[in-house]
Amino acid sequence: MTDRYYYGTGKRKTAIARVRLVPGNGSVVVNGRPLEEHLPLSPLQALVLEPLRVTNRVGEFNVIVKA
Question: What is the pLDDT of residues 18-30, one digit of tens each?
Answer without folding.
Answer: 999 999 999 999 9
